[in-house]
Structure formats: C-alpha cells, structure tokens
Amino acid sequence: MSSLPNNLKKISLFLERLPGIGEKTANRLAFYFLRLPDEDLKEFSKNIADLKTKTKFCRICFNLTEKDLCSICDDSKREGNIVTVVETVLDLLSFETGNIYNGIYHVLHGKIDPLNHVGPDDIKIKELIERVKKSPPSEIILATNPDMEGEATAIYIKNKLVELKKNFKITRLAYGLPIGANLEYADYMTLKKAIEGRNKF
Questions:
Q1: Best label site of 2, 122, 159, 192, fewest CB within 10 Å?
Q2: Domain membership of residue 39 as a residue range
C-alpha cells in the first residue's frame, strides 16, 4: 500500500477499519471510488457528510429517521397495540423483510452487558417504560437476541413491565430448531428451547 497516492491510501486505511473489510477489499473499494463518475462520487460524499446531521431518533420508538416520526410509527395501517422490543435497528429491519410483522417497535440501541459496562440506564429501557405507562399496548414482544446478555435484558425489562401492573401480555420470541436443521448438530440449549416451545401438531 506504500506505493499508493496519499489520499487513496488514507481512504483505503479508513475502509479497512469497517467491519468485515480487510486490506485487499479496502484497496479494491478505494480504486472503485476513484473510477466513479464525478457526479456519483459527489452525491456519495454528500450523503456521508449529511449522515450525522440529518439522521436522528424517532421520538416514539427510537428507530432512525430524518423526520420527527419514523415511517413505521407514522403509518396508520400498522397495529399500534403490539410493540416488539429489539436491540438494534438492524434487528428491526430483519422483521420488516418479507412483511412478517405489522406491529410497531421499540429500539433499545443495545443490551445489558456488565462486562462491557453497559447497564439498564445506558440503553432505551427507561423510555420504553415511560412509553408503556402513557399508552399501554395489548402485547409487548421481547425480541432481544437469545444470548446471555439478550436473555438478561429481556428478564430485566419483563420485571420492570410487571411492576407497572398494567393489563397487557408480555411475550418472548420462540426459539428452537431452524427449518432444514438436523437434530444431531443441534446444541442442548436449542433442543431444550424447542421442546419447551413445542406446538400441537
């Protein structure tokens, strides 16, 4: 990389800091930008420059938006009485792919992780509790990830919601075997969750 022009080298080094990007991929992307038409490159650089100033949190669910409300909270066709709590905006996008869910969301922007000094006050749990106090839904789906920190976050939120003594249902995403999986490769915890969440057939 030492033979690259300085500005190209700087771009490549920056791209290398991105998740999943190694030195070779960073170099290829830097050269791709160099070959882009001027108008495309200007548009791209303007979008990057505006990213922080134009992007903000939805005032209701903390999804990312450029307006006061995100497109989901602003959609009157959504089922506003079902709230799914997710860790990140990327998790929300997973639900939105394929139109499998028509409720609304609450984005925590993290999970309780004491080893990394992330406590309940560092994510959007307090805002969720306040939201539920003001306008209790009929159901809250806790859709944090099925790892140790995600489980701890879900249990903490459930306990806080129960303290409100409001008349709504609290549910957790079902876990178990994915479609096409072989039992011999499943770990014991996956099998345990699959047995616990079994349905009538």
A1: 2
A2: 6-54
44: domain CATH number? 1.10.8.420
% helix, strand, coil for the chain, step of 5 = 45, 15, 40
Please write the tens of the pLDDT for every residue from 161-170: 999 998 999 9
pLDDT recorded at residue 2: 56
pTM score of the predicted model: 0.84
195 in any annotated domain: no
User: Which tokens hold the place of 24?
Assistant: 């070779």
Taking 50 as the pLDDT cut, the residues of the chain under it are 1
DSSP 177: P
| Pairing mode, strands 56-57 and 64-65 | antiparallel
Residue 167 lies in a domain: yes
What is the three-class DSSP state of 185? Answer: helix
